[in-house]
Specification:
about 230 residues, alpha+beta, Cytidine Deaminase, domain 2, 5-stranded mixed sheet, about 15% strand
C-alpha cells in the first residue's frame, strides 16, 4: 500500500503531529525526512528497511553521504537530508551544554563528550581543562589513534593545562568497539598522568572512557576513578 492510500491517522507525519515523535518508530521518523519514495514504493518501507540494514541509528549516523546515496530509494538529495539531520542532532546536544559546563561527575563528563565521539571510528584522547570550580575552560585533543592504540605523553597533556592556567584536568577517550572497559594501556597512561599532575600541582580528577550501552551494560562509559584506579 502506498503512503497516500493509508488512512491519515496512520501516516507518520499526521501521527507525529497528533501524538508526538515518541509514537513513531526509527524507520517512520527517517521516512519523514525522506518525504517521498521512488515510484511504486512506500517511503515508510524505505525508512524501515534502511534502519534494518544498518541495524542501529548509531551505525546509520556513521554512514557516509556516498554510502547512503547508493541505498535503494535514497539517492543524493535524501542522503544529504539524513546527514544534515544527524549533524543537527549533534549540534543540539552540544548547544544544550552551554559554554562553561560544570563537570563534577563522570556522568556529566560523559554527557558533555558523548555526541562528539559517538561517530568516531578511531580512539581519540582528549583532555578537559577546568578551573577551581570544576567548570570547563578549555579542551585539547592529544592524540588521534588507531582502533587499538593511542600514544599519550604527559608533556603534551600538561602543556595545555599550564597554558590555560587550569586547576584540574579530566581525561577522556572513546572505544570505537563500544566496550568502555579500560585496557592495560589505559590504566598505565592514567597512572602516569596522575603522578605527573601531582608534581605540577594540577589534579587529574578522572579518566572517562566512552563506549555504547547494551542490554548487559546500563551505562555507555566507565570512570577509572570509580573503578579504583586513582587510589594506591
Amino acid at each position: 500500500m502506498k503512503l497516500l492510500d493509508q488512512p491519515a491517522s496512520e501516516r507518520p507525519r499526521e501521527r507525529l503531529r497528533d501524538k508526538g515523535p515518541d509514537s513513531l518508530s526509527h524507520g517512520e521518523l527517517v521516512a519523514i525526512l525522506l518525504r517521498t519514495g521512488v515510484k511504486g514504493t512506500n517511503v515508510v518501507d524505505i525508512g524501515k528497511q534502511l534502519v534494518q540494514r544498518y541495524a542501529s541509528l548509531h551505525a546509520l549516523a556513521q554512514a557516509s553521504w556516498e554510502d547512503l546515496a547508493k541505498e535503494p530509494g535514497i539517492g543524493p538529495d535524501k542522503a544529504v537530508t539524513l546527514i544534515a539531520a544527524f549533524s543537527l542532532a549533534k549540534r543540539l546536544v552540544k548547544e544544550e551544554h552551554g559554554h562553561a559546563p560544570l563537570l563534577e561527575t563522570p556522568d556529566a563528563v560523559a554527557g558533555y563528550m558523548r555526541e562528539e565521539v559517538r561517530l568516531r571510528k578511531t580512539e581519540v584522547f582528549q583532555v578537559l581543562l577546568l578551573n577551581i570550580r570544576r567548570k570547563l575552560i578549555g579542551k585539547a585533543k592529544i592524540s588521534d589513534g588507531t582502533l587499538d592504540t593511542i600514544l599519550v605523553h604527559p608533556r603534551e597533556v600538561f602543556q595545555y593545562a599550564i597554558a590555560a592556567n587550569a586547576a584540574a584536568i579530566l581525561l577522556v577517550h572513546n572505544h570505537p568497539s563500544g566496550d568502555p572497559t579500560p585496557s592495560e594501556a589505559d590504566i598505565k597512561v592514567t597512572r602516569d598522568l596522575i603522578r605527573a599532575g601531582q608534581l605540577l600541582k594540577i589534579e587529574v580528577l578522572d579518566h572517562v572512557i566512552l563506549g555504547r550501552k547494551t542490554q548487559e551494560r546500563e551505562r555507555d562509559y566507565v570512570s577509572l576513578r570509580e573503578l579504583g584506579y586513582f587510589y594506591s
